[in-house]
Model the fold of this input.
Amino acid sequence: MDRSENASYVYAVCRPFDTAPIDGLIGVGGHPVHFVVEGDLAAAVSTVPLDEFDEGALHAKLEDLRWLEEVARAHHGVVDEVALQVVTVPLRLATVYRGDQRVRQVLREHGETFDATLTELLGRVELGLKVYAEAIPRAAPPAPDTSTDESPGKAYLRRRREQRERRDDTWNKAARLCDRADEVVSGLARARVRHRIQNAALSTASGENVMNNAYLVDQGLVSDFFAAAEELNAQAPKGTRVEVSGPWAPYSFATVNTTEAGT
Done:
């Protein structure tokens, strides 16, 4: 393979539109963004060195968290800018093809699917809703209590039992809150996707994430969704809370998968 060959990194698919408001948009690796148009579809694309984005290179680089963070930030930045202009189907991170002609071919091959997805997403955004439960720390050895005859060992076991009971109570409350929150906001949404709960070690949020859902919501109902989430949080039992985020480009509901890295 000619290592100097270029590839096309694709961020998203949309309808053709006047791109003047986002002229000069920069994507991954500092590469400018252009649009590849095929019929009623357009793809937001950057020309990138193939040797940096072929299958072998991606396999290695996806293990580099700093590189992955930089690419993800640039990728989402482009998608967000395009989504401000026109309904957009975001593609997976590091969706790469061997040139713009191949991108046009993909738009033709998957035209019906892209068209249906764009129609479904028109006038809608993604909102996130998370529920957290208070993290209950493990019991530490209690200080000696001279006011009782309780031994240090018994005192430790008592504290462990009390903490376990607190944890069970908090998690039961959180579980009921999850059910209630999903019931309320689902009435305002067109669709829902359940994501994996966030790893506490990788999150800056306090507490333990127990629900992590995404909802596809009509733009006209976004304020109602936020109001419902705020009311749920205000009524949340002690030790639990509800957080809402967005609106975002509808990543969770763009199910078109056409990745062919380096091909």
